[in-house]
Each structure stands twice: as structure tokens, then as C-alpha cells.
């Protein structure tokens, strides 16, 4: 597999973040920063994204670095909204969307790296352009869209009930 120590650390932290997001989505129908699973997602995603800046197979800034920085911006913005704009209001729509979008973006390199490395010696995909990766990412994108719509509808119902 050929992972550096930083790569191993990044992978473990990233997997924990993805599991925490899935638990939060399953339990709360959103990544809820007020609950333990949401907090784990936030902190572990922050660490995984920042550690990704030290990983590169080429010199200089690459698309993976830009993606990591975008994820950091999204989760920090969501955290700001969570802390500074409490209550059931319009800020929850943006907070939910930013966290869900950051989760989707986190899955892009996770799918690519997993499919091109596992199983060791005979990976599922030959590279980023492999049709299996494209189909998987399309499926994840559609799930992201559907879940975002459901989160929006649920948050609107919560906001209307609290008025």
C-alpha cells in the first residue's frame, strides 16, 4: 500500500470522521454539532483535512490541497453558525448544507484512494478515471442531493413549529 506515517494517521482520522458522520446522519438525519457524533465529525474532519495538506505525490499545491481547504472552510463556517446563531432559524439551513457538502467532498478522495488501493495487489479501480469510481461518485452525489432536500424540508418543519 505504501502509505507514509502521515498517510496512515490521515486515513485513520478520516475513517473515524466518516463513521461519525454516518452515525450522526442515521440518528439525527443531519450532522448535528450539538451531539457527540457531530463533534467527532467536526474535529476529526478538521484534523484529516489539515493533515491532507502534508500529503502529495507531486510537488506544490494540487487539487487535493484545494479540496482539503474547501472542506476546512465549510466546517468552520458551519461551526460558526452553530455557535453564534443558535436556535431554529435560517442559519440551520446553511449549517446543515455546509456539513453535508463537506461530508460529500470528503468522500471524493476516500472513494478514489480506496478503490485504487483495495484489495492490495488487485485494486477495484485502475485510476481516478475508472468508470467504477465515476459511477460510485455519481451515486454518492445523488444521495447527497436527496439528503440535502430532506434536511431542508425537515429543518423548515422544525423552524415553522418553533414560531
Automatic annotation (TrEMBL):
Highest taxon in the source lineage: Bacteria
Bilayer-spanning residue ranges: 6-28, 40-58, 64-81, 93-112, 132-152
Keyword Transmembrane tagged: yes
Keywords attached to this entry: Membrane, Transmembrane, Transmembrane helix
Stated name of the protein: DUF2306 domain-containing protein
Organism: Dyadobacter flavalbus
